[in-house]
Amino acid sequence: MMHQQQHHHLQRPRRRCEGTAMGAIVLDLRPGTGIGPFSLGMPICEAFAQIEQQPDIYDVVHVKYFDEEPLKLDIVISFPDHGFHLRFDPWSQRLRLIEIYDIKRLQMRYATSLIGGPSTLATFVAVYALFGPTFPGSYDKDRGVYHLFYPGLSFAFPIPSQYKDCCHDGEAELPLEFPDGTTPVTCRVSIYDSSTDKKVGVGSSMDKATAPPLPSGSFYMEEVHVELGEEIYFSVGGQHIPFGASPQDVWTELGRPCGIHQKQVDQMVIHSASDPRPKTTLCGDYFYNYFTRGLDILFDGQVFQYLLPPFFLLLLLLLLRSVSLS
Question: How far is residue 198's CA from residue 127's CA, in Å, rounded to a whole number?
């Protein structure tokens, strides 16, 4: 069955920095943890924040998700210029898997060595020399791919059909070299949580990758209790936010918001009999955005001017992307 995904393309004017002008960018590889500024388990909002901070590097970004059933398939942030993408669990929106699918477009730095990119082939021999001995991998005969596993890290090597007999599980001599003296070049690198013994490769096995456990006391996916018309209560942190609280009160209880945005008024509402054309305008209402809590807080700016004391009418918009109600 074919699943139709929604694609969003974020593209900025080309402003490549000097470090990327001569070839692939260089990102630090952290097996079982992440690559560059992206760490396994990070919320998708933090990934977007990293992208926004480095627009000269991440100037072409594709966002893919299953529009009809958004909780069924991964949310994927892809960087086609750099040959890798990030897979986020659709329920928690936390990073569960990093896949480098075009090794020539991305150079990885591990310890003091570089691998990948247009000038440093990621051959089986090179990978084995850099990461050290490991147990024999597994051969996927249906895909013609040999997987080599390290904790939180795997490499996929395409095997020519004439050499498939050299790659039976447990029988291949490592590092893998063919009778003609050549060695395969990796076609995909997967980075996943190393706190379990799961082995993640291409195909269906990538579904085994899960985001690492949340640290103790984390506010992410925190249970929130709602008393309609009165307050909301955060079960882990113990904060109470009553209706009628001021922005200063909210700031004190929940900390600095991730963002502050002014609310737009519906275009179809703003017109009059003398001028029926739709108009766009900003009203005085504004949001405190707490993306990592899955929560937006709306203040009524028509009654009080923006960010002036003493009190504001507090309205709560609970976005169900990461908050459970009880």
Answer: 20
Contact, 187 vs 169, CB < 8 A?
no
Task: Write out the E strands in 202-323.
Answer: 223-227, 231-234, 240-242, 259-264, 282-290, 295-299, 314-318
Task: Say if residue 108 is in the same domain as residue 3.
Answer: yes
Are 79 and 134 within one domain?
Answer: no
pTM over 0.85: no
249: helix, strand or coil = helix
278: preceding bond cis by omega (within 30 degrees): no
Whole-number Cα distances in Å, 145 to 103, 109, 185: 16, 24, 11
Q: What is the mean pLDDT of residues 138-160?
A: 92
Q: What is the pLDDT of residues 96-129, one digit of tens each?
A: 999 999 999 999 999 999 999 998 899 999 999 9
Residue 213 lies in a domain: no
Q: Which domain, by its residues, includes 313?
A: 223-325
> How many alpha carbons lie under 13 Å from residue 307 in its C-beta half-sphere?
7
Query: For the ranges 107-111, 155-159, 247-251, which has the lowest average pLDDT?
Result: 247-251
